[in-house]
Design a protein that fits this description.
With about 60 residues, the protein is an all-alpha fold. Helices cover about 55% and strands about 0% of the residues.
Length: about 60
């Protein structure tokens, strides 16, 4: 029973810290674009650019 006197306030402090971290990240724009970075990885083109017509080939 005495352990609850320590564990309940400790868990409340941990919840408030987690909420503070979440809202700080949300205010700084961390969650603004969740889809864009994943799509940029899929659309990455690693092929070398083709020379324009009339330009010499390196």
């Amino acid at each position: 029973m005495e352990a609850l006197y320590l564990l309940i306030p400790l868990s409340v402090v941990v919840v408030f810290i987690a909420l503070w971290v979440y809202f700080t990240a949300s205010d700084s724009g961390q969650f603004d674009d969740l889809v864009g970075p994943g799509l940029r990885v899929l659309q990455d083109d690693d092929t070398p650019p083709q020379p324009a017509p009339g330009e010499p080939h390196p």
